[in-house]
Amino acid sequence: MNTRKATFGLVAAGTLATSALLTAPAGAVGAPAADATTRYASFEGRTLDLSGDWGAAKVCMVWKGRGVAECFRTKAEQEARAQQLLSTASSQQLLAACSTALDLYQDNNRGGRNLKFYDRGYWQNLTTYNFNDATSSYWTGACTAHLAENTGGGGYWYPGNTGPNHIENSMRSGWNDRVSSIKID
Fold first, then answer.
1. What is the C-alpha separation between 137 and 160, in angstroms, rounded?
2. Taking a C-beta distance cutoff of 8 angstroms, is the pair 137, 107 a contact?
3. What is the pLDDT of residues 94-104, one digit of tens each?
């Protein structure tokens, strides 16, 4: 079993409505304050509680380092917004994020609802986004990721390939709908 260390930093939190930035000092490793604040996402001019039904939203992205939790009807809408955020990010924000998201999918073959994460360096719990025990496939993006069976990185870690740019169209035996937290390195 892997030895795990968790370093948590306290970061001032702003409201999502004003898109305040959540940042840590240069070189600091830490988690933005509370998952509860990011369970709310903007979707077509209204606030969506991600811990419940996503409704017509099919793709949601979480980038706490930018103060962003937003949902979209299509992948194309989300990708355009992600490019906009990347192009306006500070160098500190870019260092704290993966250049392409870790994509979790509700169904095999990257189908169903899609939840995207950008922040690196700490565990993020999927219960916040109504995605606990709901991952059936994933794409790691440009960074290595870890998928754990319990919140906070607890329990066993997914034994499949979670290295950069890996696509897993179906989870290994015993792992479908089992992931409860993720971490991007």
1. 11
2. yes
3. 999 999 999 99
CA distance 184 to 177: 19
The answer to whether residue 177 scores a pLDDT higher than 50 is yes
- Name every residue whose Cβ is closer than 8 Å to that of residue 71 and which is 6 or more positions away in sequence: 41, 42, 43, 48, 50, 54, 57, 58, 59, 60, 61
> What SS3 state is found at 87?
helix
Residues 6+ apart with CB under 8 A from 73: 44, 56, 57, 58, 59
Q: SS in 3 state form for 160-180?
A: CCCCCCCEECCCCCCCCCCCC
3-state secondary structure of 78: helix
User: What are the beta bridge partners of residue 42?
Assistant: 47, 70
- pTM passes above 0.90: no
